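seq as requested:
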Amino acid sequence: MAAGCVGYFGQNSGKRAIYFGRKRESHVEHFAVRAGGPKEVRFDVPSVLGILETALYVKDVQRAAAFYRRLFGFTTLLDSERLIALDVAGRNVLLLFKAGATNEPFATPGGVIPGHGGAGVSHFAFSIASEDLLHWQQRLETEGVAVESVVKWPGGSQSIYFRDSDEHVVELITPGFWRIY
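struct tokens:
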């Protein structure tokens, strides 16, 4: 089912703008319009079901994959020279790309994947159950993974932060931080 988005044409401090959102609080695009009063424009937005893939760019894909397989028990969906794809909880994919190997477009039998890349340290979070927090702390210690920080959030959620084999910041977070989790 498609979700609706309403855009309002209006004036704000002498500038014409389009506002996206229910109460004009979310996204604003400035534009030129012809004379006339405010107009309403409706956009139909198809549904997005979630984020399927999270990509990390690593020096050694085999080493990085070994880290995630060992610590989390993730299984391999795809193993190639350019990348290794790992199954995260049967509904998400962790893509481990060899740094620099994806900058150019990549031809496949079905079409071309645009070039992409990333540099520097990334951050992402895995959701965990509140009752598993202590078990995860113990598992990290057993596996020799240093916990960099533990944060208790105002809403009752807790996070454990540590680094992977490429120094990316990995977070394990319990429910209660975001209104959606």
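Confidence is low (pLDDT under 50) at residues 1-13, 15-31.
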